[in-house]
Specification:
Layout (H helix, E strand, L loop, with lengths): L1 H10 L2 E3 L2 E6 L5 E7 L6 H5 L5 E4 L3 E6 L2 E5 L4 E5 L9 H7 L5 E4 L2 E3 L2 E3 L10 E4 L2 E4 L18 E5 L16 E9 L9 E3 L3 H9 L3 E3 L11 E3 L12 H10 L9 E5 L17 H12 L5 E4 L2 E4 L1 H12 L5 H8 L1 E2 H17 L6 H21 L2 E2 L1 H6 L1
Parallel strand pairs: 3-14, 14-18
Antiparallel strand pairs: 1-5, 2-3, 2-4, 5-6, 6-14, 7-13, 8-13, 9-10, 11-12, 15-18, 16-17, 19-20, 21-22
Helix pairs in contact: 4-5, 4-10, 6-7, 9-10
Length: 393
Amino acid sequence: MRLTIRKADQEGWLAEHMFISGVYGPGGRKTYLAGAFPSACGKTSTAMLPGETILGDDIAYFRNINGEFRAVNTEAGIFGIIQNVTAKGDPAIWDMLHSPGEVIISNILVSDKKPYWLGMGEELPDKGANFSGEWFKGKQDANGKEISPAHKNARYAVSLKALANCDPELDNPDGVVLGGLMYGGRDPKGSVPVQQSFNWAHGIVSYGASLETETTFAIIGEEGVMEINLMSIQDFLAIPLGKYIQNNVDFVNDIKKPPLVFGVNYFLRDKEGNFVNGVRDKHVWIKWMELRVHGDVDAITCPTGQIPRYEDLVKLFKQVLDKEYKKEDYINQFTIRVSENLAKIGRVEKYHKENGPGSPQIVYDTLEDTRKRLNDLREKHGDYVSPFDLATG
């Protein structure tokens, strides 16, 4: 990845840590979307949404081919976190894991030749074999800490072509035309579940270069700490951070129709600490993006971007999940949390100043513009602003 980023910089294209999926819209049309997520933030489960196609789950190359923004995946398989994969929450992944075929699963519990993992929705056996060797319920490590039946960072690996939903364009050397891309992290306090940027540069800065996530078991170090993971790629950067951001901003200068840029957050919590999103809600957010790419629905402008209208989500929740979508859910999910977003801007600015020099001025200008819009909104409506208040001005 580091070598490829360096080569892309020298030759004028982009190498990104992103999945690529084909998402179906009205009339059977298919729109390709890409997305960057740090580990354990929903990347593979988004790439494997039921009823859609997967072109890749980890690395995407972007090139300008005759004025078109085209994306290709150069990998042969996918490598995903298996914890919390359930039949209801991730049916495509679940079906793949339970169908005859070649799959590698690591760091799980094996009992009677059957694999078990944490959060699979089934009762786990009291004994078996795992990463610690022979395991039994209550087994402790050298420090007296109880050993989990399976590891939090257990993974699965499978060939893309073994998947029923593998996209037929996988081997197309020209790739596919990209309609949109998204950046997503674990933000329990601030960001709404889905929003669209005002333009390409705004999205690259506000959602990509500002990507912040709560550290998890999949990241070495302490869990539960907020940290910047710029474009979900900073650990692989082999060129200066500022140059990488500028390359992204400039890439669409000769593109006829740049992809729309979205920010997503599946991990927003309410004041009681409960998630405001259901596990399967992400499918609705993706379908809304597909409609936005084609201009089929309008959006509400807020300080950080453009958010869905309630009436559009009511239709999508019914169509996609056969679920009633209440006004209380909409308010809970899309209320603008002004103070939390202002605090995030401060952390992002600090990160770029400390990890420079070299972040382009557009980063600081974009953040300052957002700060001003948030402060203006707070003067008018307070710290917590209902999306219905935004819709009425």
